[in-house]
Amino acid sequence: MAELQQAPPSDGQAQADTLIRNIGQLVTIAQSPLPGATGSLQVIDHAALVLHNGQITWIGQDSDALLHELRQRADVQQIDAQGAVITPGFVDSHTHLVFAGDRAEEFHLRRAGVSYGTLLAEGRGILTTMKATRAASDATLLALAQERLERMRHYGTTTVEIKTGYGLNTTSEENCLRLINQLHVVEKQKPSPQERIRIVPTFLGAHSVPPEYRERRTAYVDLLLNEMLPTFVGLARFCDVFCEREAFTLDESRRILTRAKELGYALKLHADQLSPSGGARLAADLGATSADHLDHASDDDLRAMCEAGVVATLLPGCSYTLRSPYPSARRFIDAGLHVALATDFNPGTSYCENMQMMLELAMSAMGMALEEALTAATINGARALALHEQIGSIEIGKRAELAFWSIKDYHEIGYHFGVNLIHSIFVG
Ligand code: NIG
Ligand code: FE
Prior knowledge:
- The protein is of the alpha/beta class.
- The chain has helices spanning 67-72, 104-111, 116-121, 126-135, 138-154, 170-188, 217-231, 250-262, 279-286, 299-308, 316-322, 329-334, 355-365, 370-377, 379-384; strands at residues 18-27, 43-52, 55-61, 77-80, 85-88, 90-92, 157-163, 198-206, 238-243, 266-271, 290-293, 311-314, 339-341, 401-405, 422-427.
- The two termini are 27 Å apart.
């Protein structure tokens, strides 16, 4: 029998309002050793969970005598997991979810050999989506975003980061940020824990230089520094920059992120995706929370990131869509980095809401073991959002953000591929 982690729930009314019983396998991904758990992911067979106010207050064996009283209590919601596997919900720490239009035509042009960089340099790519997004009404943008969130939830995501970056002027960027915040409020107010999703807003005004500034890009950088960044304080937790030959130079990226840091934003970077841009090193210099993509990051870059505690976020959906070589996750893990996996959901390089697909790609093409992929998609995703003290693993004191799987053993994940193995989510 598992020992209790803290005072039993029957000790006080306040500690329990929900009991989840009959869990076939509880894959906790706990960061501290749990009694009764085995393996590197800390798995408890025949488990139960007690929650209070959405927080985990007890973890143990379903047969524990201390649950007897709780099972009788009418004021405790009883949930029967019916032998299911439960893991932390996926934390999708990198998405561009708010946009209108699609780029199917460009997708097929790329299939015919035109590069992503060429399209962007020709004023297509991100700018195609910018036009459609600027032209769309709030109602349209909101409805599209909600459809996509619904799909993410369906595939097991419980927390999602959402970037702006298709407005590219003060009005439209602010509008997108307000919509992201509105989505957050709508989700939070939903009565059912099966329907909610947690949202983290990121400002990515430095996604591309918009056409009206094409011949005077410094003026756009100044607009970001002097108008957008100060105005949007409080609307976004992170500031991100696309540091790339076709987007923002290393020097521009440094100016933007330094200003953002002064204003209290936490930092992220699209770094070394299409070419070695210096982005990973900049992330380390500025103490960014994460650097993402990293296809062209050098060993020295990885060392610098590791020393600075920057999370490496890998985005296999991009390699899949762009048909570029997948970065080796082994290299990042062996360098001692915390590696996160995310969808990078966007209309250009990864039009996919499904985190299970990212695990499958990471396991088949990036050299990740199942345990590493699950860790990357949960607790390390939370690290990439600086939320690892609150979510990302199943531990006492953390928020209950759970994925209920319609499988009996977690080893089916990645093995049974191309189908949805999630039954439902729970966001307490
Ligand atoms: O993460 N690389 C820059 N931004 C996105 C692509 C956005 C787009 O193509 O619309 C990315 O891949
Ligand atoms: Fe991205």
